[in-house]
Structure formats: structure tokens, C-alpha cells
UniProtKB/TrEMBL annotation:
PANTHER family: 3-(3-HYDROXY-PHENYL)PROPIONATE/3-HYDROXYCINNAMIC ACID HYDROXYLASE, BLR0106 PROTEIN. Its EC number is 1.14.13.2. Gene3D superfamilies: D-Amino Acid Oxidase, subunit A, domain 2, FAD/NAD(P)-binding domain. Residues 3-339 form the FAD-binding domain. It is an enzyme of class 1 (oxidoreductase). Keywords: Monooxygenase, NAD, Oxidoreductase. This is 4-hydroxybenzoate 3-monooxygenase. Pfam families: FAD_binding_3. GO terms for molecular function: 4-hydroxybenzoate 3-monooxygenase activity; FAD binding. Coiled coil: none annotated.
Amino acid sequence: LRVEVGIVGAGPAGLALANVLTRRGIDCLVVERASRERVEERQRAGLLEDRTVRWLRSQGLADRLLAESTLHHWCDFRCLGHTVRVDYGAYSDGRQHHVYPQQNLVRDLIAGLERAGTPPLFSHNVRAVTNITGRRPRLECEGMEIECDYVVGCDGFRGISRAALPATGHRAHNRRYPYDWLTVLAEVDRPVEGVRYAVHRAGFAGMMPRGPRLSRFYLQCPPGDAVAAWPASRIVAELRERLADGDPAGLPAIGATPEVRMLRMHSSVLTPLAHGRLLLAGDAGHVLTPSGAKGMNLAIADAAALAEALVARLREGDEGPLAAYSATRLADVRRVLGFSEWLLGLLHLPEEASAAPEAELTSRLAAIRRLAEPGPHAYRFAHRYVGSGVR
Ligand code: RFL
């Protein structure tokens, strides 16, 4: 088999890229190791940034998203028994998040490829990417080889594309945070209206809207903690304790918990994001923690940049945008990582504060209040959180 662009992985990055390339007449193929059912069921992110939605719309990929998503322009912080509502839409010229589950976007993008007559090749594990410095890099799958002009690795943090890079000349900037997050998908008796972040002496807790009957929750726990230490009764009790912080009004009743996972809190950014004719996009090149809800948005921003660069290279013979891809995207990734880490810093108390957390919590409350009052803190937070593209 021979295509112009071979894409490994049918997540948001690979699927968005393939949709745009196909529409621009570039022959490309997405190869995905999991089955279509599995890919369409994976529940992960849910907050789409303003710039992500604007781009998807500009490419004609947002019809169902615009019809079915809900808009979101505020978040609540709970600290020392106070609720501080940060109306970031008011400080970002009305820009808002769209709440739209990742699996719905993934389904839309798969349907788009199907309509174009180029559906992903599901249930095909790419075992290796070879000849990346030659003119014709190859995807090697079981019983099949795909020859390409360019290969784009969109196969996530544990994919094989990273492994195809030479050991020298690339660096992973890794960071391990001194806590982990238990992530819980739970049934709720009424829709969660908005994001709530609780800064609490017992640790951070978060609540994210996902749909009418489902919500995602996060609980800070000690690094290395095991899921087995968190039976449902403990999860519910701890969520209530931290998120309510004395006032359970506004909290839904939490029912069954169909998914409970331990998220090892780390980030990793690979530099550069390209070698020869292999380019990395999305989590394959950079993973962030869920703080600030940035991962899926960065994956789509990579796809947007790569689509333009590959069209310029393959249709106009212009190598410039492709040569600049890694540096341009890494500058954005570092900015976003900076914001995500700043938010982690706000939400977690340092270890040293555990003996006397009151003073630390008091200063956190003051910092949170600054985000809710007109001024540079609120303006900066709002633009970076909603992903307006304004720096
Ligand atoms: P994906 O979505 O991980 O897709 C990679 C695909 O590659 C396939 N693959 C292979 N295919 C063929 N051959 C191989 N050898 C292969 N190896 C792997 C995999 O099966 C998979 O289908 O990567 P992509 O496209 O870069 O997208 C990244 C996003 O999925 C990720 O950043 C977000 O989900 C992160 N994230 C969040 N991001 C947000 O923007 N907002 C959020 O609120 C948010 N919440 C989350 C999240 C991630 C989470 N988890 C589980 C990691 C919440 C959670 C719990």
C-alpha cells in the first residue's frame, strides 16, 4: 500500500488531521490498533477551548458539536468554606468553553472520514515506523506495509512513534508531581452545571461536567496510592468532604462509579517533535496532567498546524511551515504547560503546610479572589484558561 501521509492512531489528533488532509485532496490513511467500538467508547476529556472550536468550525468539522455542546464560561473555587465564582467569560471578551465529550468528537471525526471514503483502518497494530530519514518512511503492520511520503505519529504517550526516534538528538523533559489523582466517572442525579475546584486541607478535589447523568471527579491522593485503597464508599465520602467543605448545597448525589482509575501525575514534553519524515502530534509528543483541561486541545492544535504544513509541502512545494512545525508547536505547548502547572500549584497545598494549613489556605483564598475581580490576574487567567489564543 502507498499513501502520501500515513497516520498512526485514531485519537483526536490523528482523526482531525486526516479529515483536513482528505478534504484538501491529500491521500492519507489512519491506522489504529484498537477496534472502532473501543475507540468510540473511550471517555476522557470534555472541555473544548475557544480556539479549538473556532478551528474545527472553520474546517467544517463542528456541526454536531455546535448543535449539541453546552457553553461554559465560569468555574467555582471552594476554599475555607467560601465559594468563589470566576466568570472567565467576562474577562475574555465573552469567549467560552464548549462541553462536549471527547468520544463524541471522535465519533464525528470518524464519520467524516467515512463520508469522504477514507475510513481509518481499525484493529491494525503498527509494529514499527521505519526508514524515517529516507524518502519513503514505512508503517509496518502485521501482514502489511504502508509506504508513505510522511508519517505522523498520533499514537499517544505509549505509542511506538516515539520509539522510532533516534536515541540521540531528542530529549524528553519529564516531571513527576508529588501527588496522584484518582479519576472517577460517576453517575449523578442531576447535571453538574460547571467546573468546581476545591482547595482543601485534606487535598484537592475537582468536579467536571460531562453530560446530563455523568460527571468526572478528581481526588488528590498520595503519590503511588492504589485504586484498591479507594472503595466507592470512601470516594463518595471524600468527594463530599472536600467539594462541599461544609455546605453540600449545589452538589449532586453521586451514584454508581463505572470508571475509577489512578492517574500518575506527570508531564513529558519531547523536543524536537520531528525527525526526518516522522512528525509527532498530540500526546505522542507531549503529555500534560488533566489540570486546566488542555491535552485534547493541544492535540487538535498540533493537527491544525500540521495540516497546513503538509498541504504547503505536498501541494505547493513549500518546506517552510513543516520545518517550523516543531518549534512553533513547542512554544505553544510550553506556554500551556506553564499555565497547567500554575493551576496545579494553586490547587495543591505544599507538603510543608500539612501541619498548619490555615495560613496557606487563607493566602490561596486571596489568590482565587483575585481571579474573580477585574484586573490583570483575572484577565490573564481567563484568556489562558479558555484558550482564546491571546497571550
Ligand atoms: P489518544 O487519544 O491517546 O489516541 C492515540 C491513539 O493511538 C492508538 N495507538 C496505536 N494505533 C496503531 N498502532 C499502534 N502501535 C498504536 N499505539 C497507540 C491508540 O489506540 C489511540 O487510539 O491521543 P491524541 O490523539 O494525541 O489525543 C490526546 C487526548 O486524547 C488527551 O490529551 C486527552 O484525553 C487528555 N485529557 C483531557 N484533555 C483535555 O483537553 N481536556 C480534558 O478535560 C481532559 N481530561 C484527559 C482527561 C485524559 C485522561 N486520561 C485517561 C489520560 C481526563 C483523563 C482521565
